[in-house]
User: Fold this.
Amino acid sequence: MAKLTIDGKEIEVPDGTRLFDACREARGGRDLPHFCYHPDLSIAGVCRLCQVEIEGMPKLTIACNTIVRDGMVVHTTSKRVNQAVTQVLEMHLINHPVDCPICDQAGECGLQDQYMDYGLYESEVEKTDKVLKKKAKVIGPHVILDQERCVLCARCTRFCEEVTGTGELGIYNRGDRAEIDVAPGVELDNNYSLNTVDICPVGALTSRDFRFQKRVWLLKSTSSVCNGCATGCNVRVDHEGGRIYRLKPRRNDEVNGPWMCDKGRMTYKDVHREDRLDRVLVRREGELQPISWAEGRQELLGAVKPGGVGYVLADPGRSLEELVLIQRLATELVGEEPMAGGVSDDGHDEGDDLLLSADRRPNRKALAWLDFAEKPAEALAGELSGASGVLLVFGGDPLAHQALADAASRMRVVYLGTHRTATAEAADVVVPLSMWAEKDALWVNKQGRIQRGQRAVLPPGDAREDWRVLVDLLQSIGHDPEVAGLPALRRLVAARLELEDENLLNRLPEGGYAPPRLADAPTGGR
Assistant:
């Protein structure tokens, strides 16, 4: 351990700690001014903003590239330091366009923040002397580059070299003509390109999807879990006025670190798709017609009763709480055999070795925990051909498989879901449900880690939270799970999983929890 004094405060940190991190600790979590430093990338030392004064050294030194040593005495706010930072900022601003009113980064810009702390001076550089560079250059399907705003921190180039290993971005030319760009004929088109927007400290790299959509200071943020695949990246949902505008990664070193994939970022669009279900639909005279929630509830309760349901299909896109209730309902209605946890053929796509999983279902691990088997479409079609009565479907789109659609054509289909899928179009009763961003729910990622997502926006129209509909159905058939709210429901889930602490799921740690007995449970069927 090394003992040192920073701004008059004595601290002790492990040997090998970078002085930048030690200064953060001594300053109560407040970073030194910086552009190029990033805790998950190599040290570049190019912005020169994090200079500090170390007693015994004749010159200022950059803290990011300095390792602490025992006995150091460091000053981060001396007159020499403040003057140096101001001069460096002036150099960065010489050729900056200062177009903050039209910049998407305004409100979360490192250059703005540093200027408010260390700038507020009158520049002596005439506007006509500025070096002009390219603006609004499309460099990939998701990212736009504004070279004039760039401070050449090299975060984006290091990310493409060190994290994705794709190397699309580089720094070209020299002196004040140096600029970030892609090589001729190359696009920034890897699965993680939007992370360069996240780590850009200014507005040089912006998202084509979010561009000019909403000022960031109007957005509210809610912590949740990405439902795009089985990795379960922790995310921040930025929303305003009942609409989601973007997803940003939320650090969880056990799951996704500080990153997330581009495909996951775009899953918010499904929440606001035009084919979202927002009314109960009932088939009358051969067509699906909207009815009120009160009427729809009676239709649902009339269809879902013992002796009337022949088969129950769920989908691993349902939350852990919902799957537990669905399994209990299915057992009460049809016993253990005529039910399945969805179509095993569905929800698979290309993945990679970083974060994007080939398993596109967020909760498939939970099915294995519950011994709730998925089955191939052909096998399910064979089982449905011998069933009669009501086919009760929770989520997914199983009837997109022609064999299943043919087998279900003799049954009355009741679909509880979120979009007008092929299954919804084939159904006789359609009940709208909430999506992942519209409810508090638990998700089990491929590691076997239980994580909590929080509601960011309200569901549209008459769409309801799944667990409330399921409890209503259970009570209507004489089985009261005694669930008065989410805390009671999560105690029921904990009992189903045989967790020692029945209240564990009500006080999950920020990064989630992997029960030792269940974390390595095999995926698969019963």
In short: The first helix runs from residue 19 to 26. The domain at 2-92 is CATH 3.10.20.740 (Ubiquitin-like (UB roll)). The mean pLDDT is 93. The chain has three domains: 2-92, 128-271, 280-506.
